[in-house]
Amino acid sequence: MGGICGWTGCNTEVTESRSLLEDMTKPIMQYDSRPVQMLFGKKSALAVNGHPDNVHTFQGQGIIIGILGHIRLTINQSDQHSQPHNKAQFFLENWLNIGEKAFANLVGEFTLCIIDENKNQCTLAVDRMGTRSLTCQASGTQLIFSTSLDAIIRHPQAKPQIDAQSLFNYVYFHMIPSPGTIYKNQHRLLPGEYLTFKNNEIITDYYWKPSFEESNTRSFEDLKAELHTLLRSSIRDAIGNESAGAFLSGGTDSSTIAGVLGEVTGKPAATYSIGFDATGYDEMEYARIAARHFTTKHHEYYVTPDDVVTAVPEIAAVFDQPFGNASAIPAFFCARMAKADGITRLLGGDGGDELFGGNERYAKQYLFSLYSHLPAFLREKILEPWTKSVSGKQLVPPFRKIYRFVEQAAIPMPARMNTYNLLLRHGITSVFTSEFLATVNTTLPDVLNDQTYHQVNAKSLINKMLAYDWKFTLADNDLPKVVNACELAQIDVAFPLISDEMVFFSTQLRPNYKVKKTRLRYFFKEALKDFLPKEIIVKQKHGFGLPFGVWLQKHPQLRALAADSLTDLKARNMIRSDFIDTLLDQHLQEHAGYHGAMIWILMMLEQWHKLRKTQL
Prior knowledge:
The chain is of the alpha+beta class. It has a six-stranded antiparallel sheet with strand order 2-3-1-11-10-12. The chain has a six-stranded antiparallel sheet with strand order 4-5-8-9-13-14, covered by helices on one side. A five-stranded parallel sheet has the order 17-16-15-18-19, with helices on both faces. Strand 2 (36-40) and strand 3 form a beta hairpin.
């Protein structure tokens, strides 16, 4: 919770600056009423609010620095062994000495701003995993920045304009991937990136990129012992001095955190689970198994369609740009339950799959990768021409499977991972109006995918996919989902499985310890098989998936909310009217779960528009 906002490069009186800064902080303080620290320079202003332990500021000799986050400094100190009293000042001294190399000494999740009026320079940065976003917009000599887009657009120089390309990217990815935002001319920092604004120019670079050691020969037992040590230290650090609880979906990660939380605190962990009264969606059985196994103080709540109707506008409002992950709903109700129980910080298990190889597509892509080992003549002269000459639907089942395998396996990475993409399955020209498509680059998502996938310092397929997911799945999707859901519930959240130490540990594991042929999370599960319940070890991944499409068919108010939203969306001349009509009627009846996802994405887009009173 909390955030930062401010600007540099504008000569204003302090009273005027204060009034503007107070206005910019309103969206941030809407969900976090804790005190705001404000600092003013001759041409600059900075506001930071959040948990008192996480707000670090300093001002002196023409420099303003603000850091928001749970941080530690690894710089050696000659006079003391503890952390410095003013971490912002201490980091600044290191920064002035060695520049961007100082980021190597900053550990934890953070958003950071350094304004040096002596040099007319501003530096922004986010942590290595991009836990919380930070965005800026240049306007002449000014740079406006914030963790909230709603704060930025309150600045008179921001002049927000909806970016049609970002709308297209949203429907493609179900969120707007960084560095873009819903507004034109804004830059959202990427994980491990820092940005410098000087001489009216923005320059970005990375102070950290993942580097994988793929031939590590350390013994399994040594690695196992280190994992257990890291789990305890990361969770202990994430707790801090707070009353902590844990999300518990019944999966490997949340169950691990629940168990270790009880270990490090010496008392039963408070755990919170969400269920659904819908066949194939309810995972409460596994959450209960974990709760019994670790003797947690367990709490449950079953989300209903009525809950969704009530929560949709609130969820749309807490996100500062369109966001289409429906799991934000159960995450919010889980966080709200913990808040009501007196918990002040929730621990999320996000990141475990992306660090240790737990997503189903990793095993699928391993199988597809075997295709490349076939002789080139067989692939290029026989199999691939065959798939282009026949229709897979007309083949008998055994040959149909071969057809589908060859058809997908022949697609190079990372495009092969997007063959199940909802938008591509429906067809771009079937979804969007021709007028809208004339304003966007429909190949840009492919460019973003390629850039992220191929810039990774890794040789193995699994590590390339993991690093890709650190950006698209974690920083752009899962982390904002949980952070904003907890913000709406007004409770702090931490992610111990993506601590810097845990991330580094995962990069040192050899590839087949992450995915061993088709065995997902091989090392992690083997290392914890005597700690976790057997049922959790062998279960299939599921999580807090919302049965939106299923409920849509049976709940009149929910269907009316979706239908009204999509009907209003027609007027924006972005989505084809005939596609919306077919989607709500024919497609929903054919496959409620699959097509319900597209309805949710478009509904949340319109809900966001309505709340912002903006027009395309």
